[in-house]
Amino acid sequence: MNRKQLLIGTLVASALVAGGAGMYWLGTQRAAPPAAGATAAASGAAEGEDATRRHIASGLKAGDTDPVSGRKILYYHDPMVPQNKFDKPAKSPFMDMMLVPVFAGGESDQGMVSISPRVQQNLGIRTAIATEGAVGTKLQAVGTIVFNERNQAVVQSRASAFVQRVHVRATLDGVRAGQVLAELYVPDWIAAQEEFLGLRRMKGNDLGPLIEGAKARMRLAGMNDDQIRRVEASGRPDPRVDITSPITGLVTEIGVRDGMAVGMGTTMFKVNDFATVWANAEIPESQAHLLRRGAPVVAESPMQPGERFNGKVEQLLPSVDPSTRTIKARVELANKNAFLVPGMFVSMEFTEPRQRRSVLIPTEALIYTGQRTVVMVAEAGGRFRPVEVEPGTESGGQSEIRKGLQAGQRVVVSSQFLVDSEASLRGVEARLNNAPAAAGAASPPASAAATAPAQSAAPAGPVHQGTAKIEAVTKEALTLSHGPIPSIKWGAMTMDFQLPPARDKVAADLKAGDQVSFEFVMGKDGLPQLTRVTRAAGAPALGARQ
Question: Contact at 8 Å (CB) between 101 and 79?
Fold first, then answer.
């Protein structure tokens, strides 16, 4: 090799080394930074394991004081299975890691998670202060307009007569009070009027009782005092009578036509006052207790956009629709400009006039877990804890809190589930869907927690599958080194699995070193429980799926 070839080879090697270094630098610069929660969880777990090893070396246990932090040790737990507590530092019986100490005054024993301001900003956490204010019941409903039956007038014949002429011939025609509806001819009035007029023409001082008797007979025939005075003033019998409307409104029923004969008490017309109408609203029976008689109501109709009709609850009808489970609320509305007509739909807002002082928070702060209603309370020092509350009525984006909060406390109104995920990563026990522990409940001793037998009842939930190598076999559990389990997002690790309920005898058929495929579910205690174990070589299954 000559000198020129040697120089070219050296230059090529230098270029390759420089290019590899550049690619490595570029890769490190473009690598995505770890999530804030994962970094915090990993660093917290590492610090906890270091403390545990230090406690083992120093012979410390639950109840002692850590000389480094100066805090009392409450217990030890596995952050992945935080409900099991141990009184001595050791390796976790569930995962391939050390137990982590929990100190008095720390976030775990208070059911809190501490998040730095930087992580809070990354999570987009917003908070609001619980305030004390007046809350009134507001309820939305849809109703149907009907006539106000209490303002209906019935026009009947007061004597047997013939209909000479009907002036109002169509239903829903508008009439005024005193307007003539029909003309009648009453033959029976002629004899009574002739007798009265004959007594009026007679001379004598003792005719007063007789005249009053004649008037009484005219009244019995169906004449009123005005008609009697007209006959007395004219001096001539008048068997015709005009039937007039007693109120202003709409004619809703017509029972006569020209030339018909009617008897005493025959209904000829029905007239409804249209100044007010009823709106029958369907209220869910679970919300009926929010309404009171006399509560103000505001209604709107799509037929008249922008118009608001005021009214009040007249009555809650004592009947429940069995198909819709609703109660009918009868609302009386002022029919401004006669815009509301029967059959029309209106949207209504009910307001309870008796307002009360309550603690109010934004409705978006409430978390409905399916088991309880929770809010995330922000404490001093960047700490958060879930608090169970009892919500009341909701109005204008504000919800009443009957129990669980006091005015002045700060609640999280966004990213609550990200805070809950942060608590999960850090092993905090108080999660959104966990009921608070009973006060004074004693923690189970380490030996009991580590050797608790499988539950007698078969757990329910999704079934996960994997393959593993058996590391150890006991009567209660198998220690498996398994590969990744995508269905539950687990990586490869070594951990304990409980044997199927009432099938401890299958442990005798297994031994360390066996390659197996297995299925499991997460038990009620949060521990994985096997439902099927099969040797990889094709041996029959040990245990049956529950």
Answer: no
Q: What is the pLDDT of residues 347-404, one digit of tens each?
A: 998 876 556 678 999 998 998 877 788 888 888 877 888 888 998 877 778 888 988 8
Residue 373, both tokens? 């209603």
- Quick one: tokens of 484? 């990744």
Distance between CA 428 and CA 233 in Å, rounded?
101
Q: What are phi and psi of 113, to 5 degrees?
A: -130, 135
What amino acid is encoded at 438 in this protein?
A
Contact 114, 383 (CB under 8 A): yes
Cα separation, 202 vs 57, in Å, equals 137
**Cα angle value 375/349/287 (rounded, 5°):** 55
Give bridge partners of residue 344 from the DSSP assignment.
none
Calculate the CA 432 to chain-centre distance.
17
Give, in degrees to the nearest 5, the angle at Cα 375 between 370 and 381. Answer: 145
- Name residue, tokens 């669980």: 404
Structure tokens at 423: 């608590």
Rounded Cα distance, 507 and 454, in Å:
13
Task: Give the 3-state secondary structure of residue 69.
Answer: coil
Helix (H, G, I), strand (E, B) or coil at 79: coil
Which residue matches tokens 């297994």? Answer: 510
CA–CA separation, 354 and 343 (whole Å): 32
- Which residues, listed in sequence order, are joined to residue 129 by a DSSP beta bridge? 410
What does the block give as tokens for 47? 């610090």
Check: CB of residue 366 under 8 Å from CB of residue 130.
no
**d(Cα 210, Cα 487) in Å, to the nearest integer?**
108
The Cα 231–Cα 193 span in angstroms is: 7
pTM over 0.70: no
User: pLDDT tens, 420-457?
Assistant: 666 655 555 445 555 544 333 333 433 333 333 333 34
Query: Can you tell me the distance from the alpha carbon of 364 to that of 127, in angstroms, rounded to the nearest whole number?
Result: 11
**Residue 313 and residue 298 in contact, taking contact as beta carbons nearer than 8 Å:** no
Compute the distance between CA of residue 431 and CA of residue 488 in angstroms, rounded to an integer: 19
Q: What is the DSSP string of 446-501?
A: HHHHHTPPPPSSPP-S--EEEEEEEEEE-SSEEEEEE--BGGGTB-SEEEEEEPPT
DSSP category for residue 542: B
Quick one: how far is CA 365 from the chain centroid? Answer: 13
Strand order in the sheet with 152-156: 152-156, 267-272, 249-254, 174-175
Q: Which of 327, 375, 437, 343 is nearest to 85 (CA)?
A: 437
Nearest CA to 498 out of 531, 467, 460, 465 is that of: 531
Element (H, E) at 356: strand 356-362
Residues facing residue 358 across a β-bridge: 133
**Residue 114 in tokens:** 């501490």
Q: How many of the other CB atoms lie within 10 Å of CB of 109?
A: 16
| Residue 539 DSSP one-character state | P
CA torsion, ordered 202, 206, 212, 214, to nearest 10 deg: -40
